[in-house]
């Protein structure tokens, strides 16, 4: 029976090599998305000929992973490794002493550790498979040595299988004109994953910035000089919140409608006001941002107030003026509304809020689906926003924290305000 070994019949779209004259194929995916299987099958495709003894397109392959053990246990002997994917009549022989696989047609695949870039100085190849490159400690050096070694044949090629991380070498590879990329989330391969695993990781990481990287396979950028970092945001995550003294919904409205308009940032946050302001803690509960016309975001904002029992809706009115409040009152004439007007740039407004995060005084509710908001946070600098489009979600968050933490603390320092 040959059908079980015909990968093209069973493969998911992201696991099949793209067309075109590419040098590097980068397969980025979430955990369990089928990246290892795609790499193993590509090696088979390169070295196998029409028969077991017939030559294939490639004759010498480099298998590079973080360590020798990981290459052997994952890329060679793993459940989706080369040996498991090969039919009995095409299965290569493992030569442990020489750390290589040998096929009946004479093709070889030699194992290399990313801890030893100099080991790639001297050998030469016509194909290479690099696994989990974004984890390599010496990624730049190893990748450069591999490029010098990839010099046999008419058109040497290489495959990179990795969960994306914000590392320079991966971004440099993706920026090359000779690179093609495919992408898939963990969910794409759910037929081959335990339901309990999917349920657990989605519950714990779904909607978070870490989940976007590890489950959705999205390459996240931490901009140099950003006011927030991924590490900061992961450290502030909580599974539940205490009883909150105040809850507000903050809106950064889009003043134009239609599919091409900016998103309207809508963020729900609350605060525990125990003792003096230095002891207050804020909790970001939900990112309810929407794209649409004024009535769309007004409905979404009022609905968020109802869901969380918010006491007030606060909104920036720099662009919309009185129109912003009038739109909200079309949905709920009695909604408690506060207009806010920005007098400083986005970066300067965001800086004191970022300082509260550094002090550990702001927490993110894990189930709040805050991943897209966190992406914007990690692209905001004092100079301004360095991502695409407008940081509407970030602006809404900043207004919420100003309303809950910064403005009340400013008034607390004045005796007349403390008596109110």
Automatic annotation (TrEMBL):
Transmembrane segments: none annotated. This is DNA-packaging protein. InterPro entries: P-loop_NTPase, Terminase_6C. Keywords: Viral release from host cell. It comes from the Bacteria. Gene3D superfamilies: P-loop containing nucleotide triphosphate hydrolases. It comes from Paracoccus nototheniae. Residues 250-403 form the Terminase large subunit gp17-like C-terminal domain. Pfam families: Terminase_6C, Terminase_6N. The lineage of its organism: Bacteria, Pseudomonadati, Pseudomonadota, Alphaproteobacteria, Rhodobacterales. Coiled coil: none annotated.
